Q: What sequence folds into this?
């Protein structure tokens, strides 16, 4: 839960900075900083992927995960969920004052941005399974920077999205901790290696803008990595 608490705190700090002085921070500075964090995220993903004990496990997991992820249209469903939730809030805000609409827009926009995405899910799972919150620490910095920009334009509603992050990511970490008992270090290691691939996609596509990568469709690969390791252990096959 440490990673989620850190995420919660940095969104609040970033939001407060945005309310007070966000518009005074040059856009070029923010863009360059995001690029630097994108490079770091990519490098961190490489370091996680390098920990795999057998390259075939993350490869097979990735292929199977993509097949399932694309069949289930996970990327589209995540996008649709965001659009649906925002439309529901927008409908409820009809006829209210401009300040109320601005508050709701700030809250909904940033809640979706901070909660719906592979990094929130993957980081929370890793934090819950192993107590390693490095991935969520990276996400926390990115969210903190984003909250500066959003709070400067959308106002105080951005700060309240920190509460959504606390509940959402905290619940995922708790479920991962309860479900992960007895998985074993090997399964967690291979899941982490696959997570490294997702981070490389986020760093290269989402942050550096080199190419849009449908990382949402990669998410089932995390569970295939665990399943493959458990199957190999059950069959007594060394890997």
A:
């Amino acid at each position: 839960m440490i990673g989620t608490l850190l995420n919660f705190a940095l969104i609040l700090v970033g939001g407060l900075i945005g309310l007070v002085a966000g518009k005074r921070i040059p856009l070029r500075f923010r863009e360059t900083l995001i690029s630097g964090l994108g490079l770091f995220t990519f490098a961190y993903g490489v370091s996680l992927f390098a920990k795999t004990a057998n390259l075939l496990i993350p490869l097979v997991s990735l292929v199977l995960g993509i097949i399932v992820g694309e069949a289930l249209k996970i990327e589209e469903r995540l996008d649709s969920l965001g659009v649906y939730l925002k439309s529901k809030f927008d409908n409820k805000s009809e006829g209210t004052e401009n300040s109320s609409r601005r508050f709701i827009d700030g809250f909904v926009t940033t809640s979706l941005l901070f909660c719906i995405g592979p990094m929130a899910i993957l980081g929370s799972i890793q934090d819950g399974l192993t107590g390693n919150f490095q991935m969520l620490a990276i996400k926390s910095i990115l969210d903190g920077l984003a909250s500066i920009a959003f709070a400067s334009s959308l106002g105080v509603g951005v700060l309240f999205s920190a509460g959504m992050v606390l509940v959402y990511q905290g619940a995922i970490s708790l479920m991962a901790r309860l479900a992960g008992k007895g998985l074993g270090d090997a399964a967690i290691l291979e899941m982490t290696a696959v997570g490294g691939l997702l981070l490389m996609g986020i760093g290269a596509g989402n942050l550096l803008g080199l190419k849009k990568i449908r990382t949402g469709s990669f998410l089932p690969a995390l569970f295939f990595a665990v399943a493959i390791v458990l199957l190999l252990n059950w069959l007594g096959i060394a890997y």
Observations:
- Residues 122 and 195 are 7 Å apart (CA to CA).
